[in-house]
Amino acid sequence: MQGRITLTQYLIEQQRQHNSLPADLRLLIEVVARACKMISHNVGKGALGNFLGSAGSENVQGEVQKKLDVVSNDILLEANEWGGNLAAMASEELEQIHLIPHRYPKGEYLLLFDPLDGSSNIDVNVSIGTIFSVLRHTDKTRTPDEQSFLQAGTQQVAAGYAVYGPQTVFVLTTGHGVHCFTLDRELGSWVLTQSNMRIPHATHEYAINASNARHWHPPVQRYINELLMGKDGERKQDFNMRWVASMVADVHRILNRGGIFMYPADQRDPTKPGRLRLMYEANPIAFIVEQAHGAATNGQQRILELMPTQLHERVAVFLGSKDEVDRVTRYHHEMG
Ligand code: F6P
């Protein structure tokens, strides 16, 4: 096929055009993308590779780890250790940060990832994915520690996700729009298939786990009730609902045709502000969504401006089509 642009070519052209993509960041993104290829391969093997089922352990969140969670985490750690572009890594699957071993050179970036998002879908052949975020290690004289990672999402220099679905895609932003690459499985290369993805401001589609409805706070109850009333209510139009239970898959749909994704905090446990993790789930996705002209808040504030206090902290999430995110955020402000 003529005129195919690979991820490598795209990144080199970015480097030339914007002069804002340093060579080591480019290499780092390529290594992450290569690791995603390997994860995709293992996900595709499933039972044939003995990859399904529980690993018999729990992660820092107290969630049972699946074999593929562990395998994907190991792939990302191993792929990114030796390249010389990183100062340290952090993962959903690791309680502590992961320093680059002494035998390898160190770089100036910090990589955070959720190796396999959508855990409940791993064993049932529904789309799952990898999410990553890149920050700078600002104080190079200091060995990175957890504190070094606690930067607002606005400081991200790159973010992306892969979806392992009917096609494997890699969606990336370095702050110059959002671009989607599809894995050519025969050639093993990422091919640019969508440039400058845009989320329409208006939408008729929403995503929320409605089984939690009775626990929601009043602004979320009000917003969802209005959507459910459809044409017969305040909104005077019908809305459709979709919930994959893999954030990456729901977000990928929203990037393609609009929608709002919500995982609110609820009244069950005040110490748990939502389910999703700020640093390696909400922040990278919020960066991508904003770059695609959407919006992302925790109901009160822009997610990217939140100052993290812990590596694994959780956050409420409302993201996607701007008109809807603005509306549900306004309800939070109006109703306290
Ligand atoms: O832990 C993250 C996650 O798996 C997301 O990918 C997904 O959107 C959500 O949790 C699913 O939550 P629930 O199990 O409540 O449907």
Can you offer a commentary on this structure?
Its cofactor is Mg(2+). It comes from Mycoavidus cysteinexigens. Substrate binds at residues 117-120, 209. The chain has 336 residues and is an alpha+beta fold. It has 2 domains: 7-194, Fructose-1,6-Bisphosphatase, subunit A, domain 1 (Fructose-1,6-Bisphosphatase, Chain A, domain 1, 2-Layer Sandwich); 205-335, D-Maltodextrin-Binding Protein, domain 2 (3-Layer(aba) Sandwich), CATH 3.40.190.80. Helix content is 31%, strand content 24%. The protein has helices at residues 7-18, 23-45, 67-81, 146-149, 218-229, 247-257, 278-291, 322-334, and strands at residues 54-58, 64-66, 86-91, 98-99, 109-117, 128-136, 158-164, 168-173, 179-184, 189-194, 205-207, 240-241, 260-263, 276-277, 295-297, 314-315, 317-320. An 8-stranded mixed sheet has the order 4-3-5-6-7-8-9-10, with helices on both faces. Strands 12-11-13-17-15 form a 5-stranded mixed sheet, sandwiched between helices. Strand 9 and strand 10 (189-194) form a beta hairpin. Helix 2 (23-45) runs antiparallel to helix 3 and helix 5 (218-229) crosses helix 8 (322-334). 6-O-phosphono-beta-D-fructofuranose is lined by residues 117-120, 209, 245-247, 275-276.
* Major sheet: arrangement of strands: 4-3-5-6-7-8-9-10
* Ligand names: 6-O-phosphono-beta-D-fructofuranose
Q: Largest beta sheet, briefly?
A: 8 strands, mixed
> Would you state the CATH class of the largest domain?
Alpha Beta
CATH architecture of the largest domain: 2-Layer Sandwich
CATH superfamily of the largest domain: Fructose-1,6-Bisphosphatase, subunit A, domain 1
What gross morphology would you assign?
Answer: globular
Helix fraction, binned, reads: 25-40%
What is the number of independent domains?
Answer: 2
Order of helices and strands: HHEEHEEEEHEEEEEHEHEEHEEEH
**The CATH topology of the largest domain, please?**
Fructose-1,6-Bisphosphatase, Chain A, domain 1
Average pLDDT taken over every residue: 95
Low confidence ranges? none
Structural class: alpha+beta
In percent terms, what proportion of residues is strand? 15-25%
Q: Count of DSSP helices?
A: 8
How many extended strands? 17
End-to-end gap: 56 Å
Assembly context of the chains:
single chain
Rg (C-alpha, Å):
19 Å
